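Form 7-S
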Amino acid sequence: MSTLFLFFTATTLWAAFPTEKAPADAIVLNAENGINSDLIEKPATSKELKKQLKTVMHENSRSMSGGGKSKIVAALLAIFLGSLGIHSFYMGQKQKGFVQLGIFVAGLALMIAGLASFVSGMGQSIPILAIVGYFLILGVSIWALVDFVRILTGGLSPEEGFDD
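Output:
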C-alpha cells in the first residue's frame, strides 16, 4: 500500500514540476525584420526603478486609504487632541507630532511630580515643577490652537493636500 502511495505521489510531483525545459523558438529582432532599434526600450537603471516603485506605491496607498486627508477631520483632531499632536500625525507630519507629544508628556510628568512633592510635604511651598509642567502643556495647547486656525484658513495642509 505504501509503495502505491509513493508511486502516485512521485508521478504527481513530476507532473506538477517538470524538470526539463521546453525548447523556445527564438525571435531575433533586428533591422532586417523591420524593427527600428530606437523603439526598443533600454533596461531601466536601479534609480529609475526605485523612483517608479515609489510613485506607484504612493498612488496605491492613496487610493487604498480613500485619497487625501479631510480638512474637517484634521481640524477636529487639532481642537480636541491637538495637545497630543494627533492632528500632525494625521497630516503626515510625524516629526512635528512627536515633538508635540513629547512636550505634552514631559509637561504632564512634571505636573504630576510637582503636585506629588507638594502634597507629600517634601517639596517647596510653591510647586515649581507643577507650574513648569503647566506652562509646557499650555504652550503646546496654544500651538495646537494655532494649527487649528491654520488648517481652517488653508495655511497648514498635508503634502498631498486635502480632499475637501
